[in-house]
């Protein structure tokens, strides 16, 4: 079984009230090095078998027609989950 990651972010010119709330809270919690924040969406789509270029193309089409609102959001990534680095080091 394969998985595809789709990430969607608000277009840069669109106000992001959740991002503004996060950037306002960060310094109060001691995280003073961050000067901006934007909040987006992440989807993980499961497929039978391997993630092929055809599967990625279908995922991109689904992202552009269903998973995002193209008026206010951009699809910023469609990738095989095995190609996505999600490691967080402590």
UniProtKB/TrEMBL annotation:
Pathway: Purine metabolism; IMP biosynthesis via de novo pathway; 5-amino-1-(5-phospho-D-ribosyl)imidazole from N(2)-formyl-N(1)-(5-phospho-D-ribosyl)glycinamide: step 1/2. Coiled coil: none annotated. It is an enzyme of class 6 (ligase). Its main location: cytoplasm. It is found in: Cytoplasm. Its EC number is 6.3.5.3. GO terms for molecular function: ATP binding; phosphoribosylformylglycinamidine synthase activity. GO terms for biological process: 'de novo' IMP biosynthetic process. Keywords: ATP-binding, Cytoplasm, Ligase, Nucleotide-binding, Purine biosynthesis. Part of the FGAM synthase complex composed of 1 PurL, 1 PurQ and 2 PurS subunits. Belongs to the PurS family. This is Phosphoribosylformylglycinamidine synthase subunit PurS. It comes from Sediminihabitans luteus.
